[in-house]
Amino acid sequence: MITKRIEEFQISTATHQQIQILFASCFPEYPKDRTYFKQVPTFRYLVWESEQLIGHLGVDHRMIRVGNQSVSIMGIVDLCIDPAFQSKKIASNLIQKLNELAQQHQIDFLVLVTADHNYYRKHGFQLVQNICRWLIINNHQMLGIGHRRIEESLMVKAIGDKKWNDGMIDFLGHIF
Ligand SMILES: CC(C)(COP(=O)(O)OP(=O)(O)OC[C@H]1O[C@@H](n2cnc3c(N)ncnc32)[C@H](O)[C@@H]1OP(=O)(O)O)[C@@H](O)C(=O)NCCC(=O)NCCS
Question: Quick check: pTM over 0.90?
Answer without folding.
Answer: yes
